[in-house]
Amino acid sequence: MADTGNSPGVPAPRPSQSTDAERTTANPPVPRPAPGAADERLGRDALERVLSRAAELQAVDADPSDAMLTEDQLLEVGREVGLSPQHIRQALAEERSRILIPEEHGSMARVFGAARVHASRTVRATADSVFRSLDIWMQREESMQVKRRLTDRMTWEPRSGFITEVRRGLNLGGFGYHLSKAEEVAATVVPVDRERVLVRLEADLANVRFQRVASGGAVLGSGAVGTAVLLALGFFAPIAVIPVGIAAVGGYFVSRSHAPLVARAQTSLEQLLDRLERGEETGTRQQTAGSREQLLSRGLDFFLKGPS
């Protein structure tokens, strides 16, 4: 009999049992997916949730320097997940034109109206032609002047002067001048592709809202003074509170007059985008109106200053 190297009377261990146990401990079994799970199709909502959650997890673990992508890389990633290059370029242009302005959620915006309005749209044009049309429209129809001109952004501010104020007050030309009260109007133009650009328009009306709210407060304050005078003169309280009650109602409506201005400014921005979207020749259309306004302005100058 061959010598196995074990003591007499002690049975030799079975190699198959110890080997199986060690293999199970070192390599635990991986659960297999349920039949058909790999082929399960996800709906649009579920797909968006999965991709959003995966992006959150990637953002936590990834190095910030690894998250920098070029436009070509972004297009390639989009193609891999089934997104069209057209939609990716559109979203990329919107991101580039986005200005980080905190949204208003307080009682001031809810009661009296927003301090800023904005509108954006993709149009078939070039950046130069859009800026040229916008500049003509702002200067002739809103009596504004250029404040700054950057590569992809242009801003305007109200033109000052007595003649300009008279023109707006009399609504010469019938333009309405709804944006001329804004502290600043800005336009950002970002190319989407060779034929289209994204146009974003903004109007800052914070100064107008402050003036309306301050005027309403002044009306209320004058009513309170009137009530105090009547009480000091010995009038009955029910009669003495009449001035402050009337002033409170009047002050509220004065302050609330900002909301219609916000709506008109928003409509003006949308109308301009409509004209750009139709490819309307802004300069050609406004030549006649501009000439008529110049004649009226000259008439005002002659009336106020006399013949030169």
Task: Give an overview in words.
The chain is α+β, with helices and mostly antiparallel strands and 308 residues long. It is 56% helix and 12% strand. It contains twelve helices and five strands. The protein has helices at 15-26, 44-61, 71-80, 85-97, 107-112, 127-141, 162-170, 206-232, 237-240, 242-256, 258-277, 282-305, and strands spanning 116-124, 144-149, 153-158, 184-191, 196-204. The protein has a five-stranded antiparallel sheet. A hairpin with a 3-residue loop joins strand 2 (144-149) and strand 3. Helix 3 (71-80) crosses helix 4 (85-97).
Condensed summary:
By secondary structure, the chain is an alpha+beta fold. The chain is 56% helix and 12% strand. It has twelve helices and five strands.
Write the layout of secondary structure elements.
Elements: H1 15-26, H2 44-61, H3 71-80, H4 85-97, H5 107-112, E1 116-124, H6 127-141, E2 144-149, E3 153-158, H7 162-170, E4 184-191, E5 196-204, H8 206-232, H9 237-240, H10 242-256, H11 258-277, H12 282-305
Antiparallel strand pairs: 1-5, 2-3, 3-4, 4-5
Helix pairs in contact: 3-4, 6-12, 8-10
